[in-house]
Amino acid sequence: MKQVKIALAIAALMSAAGVQAQSLAKTDQAMLKQLAQANIAEIEAGRIALDKSQNTEVKAFAQQMIDDHSKGLREVMTVAQSKGVVLPTEPDAKHKAMGKKLQRLSGDAFDREYAAQAGISDHKATHAYVQKVQSEAKDADVKALAAKLEPTVAKHLGHVETLSASLDGVSPRTAGTPPPVGTSANAADTMGATAAPGNTGSGRAASPDASASGKTYGKRQPKADKTSGNTDHPDNPANKDVHPPVKY
């Protein structure tokens, strides 16, 4: 008799859960399941990375994924239970295949693949999805859940993009950053080989009349005029009495 009562109680709970699930739109139910799946995938990939990677930064990121996504999964489960939605308990086929691929890799190849797939690719997809849930979910609790998860996913994405660049050996300097002060954009400018007019490339402004050899920097002085009154010029008639021509 006691067993019958227990069975009836369980049936009543299941029936109540079923009524709650039916009250939640099917799209919202699917959203909860997908959010759970995203967290499960990151937890499983993080466990693989902790086991296989020898890179301290990769292992630290993997541990953060396990911790943060375990918390995220618990939050999804809390909402799902209140709505009577049954969630998945293991990775989907896509992420099982990814896990098998990661298991076959090792060393730097593993680290790069883990960062690219479980890191960048999955977090981009999850970030876009939580934004979609925020805007399209009908249930207020489901919307609030997505809004709560979004900042953590965005933070993970920024972290793993930096990590992936480091693993690929990409310089942290971003494209378009101007060169340091005092340096030139090309070697020709630095050496002054093709300096523009008025710029020798050495930091000293040259006169427009500077010679090609670079030895003359001042202006050329005009030649003395024979009839200018310059009493020092030997060809000026006024100089004949002062400087008589030398006879040989």
Automatic annotation (TrEMBL):
InterPro entries for the chain: DUF4142, Ferritin-like
Superkingdom, taxonomy of origin: Bacteria
UniProt cross-references to Gene3D superfamilies, sorted A to Z: 1.20.1260.10
Record keywords, A-Z: Signal
Residues annotated as domain DUF4142: 27-163
Region feature Disordered, mapped onto this chain: 168-248
Signal sequence residues: 1-21
Sequence ranges of Basic and acidic residues compositional bias: 222-248
Annotated Low complexity bias: 185-196
Key word Signal present: yes
Name of this protein: DUF4142 domain-containing protein
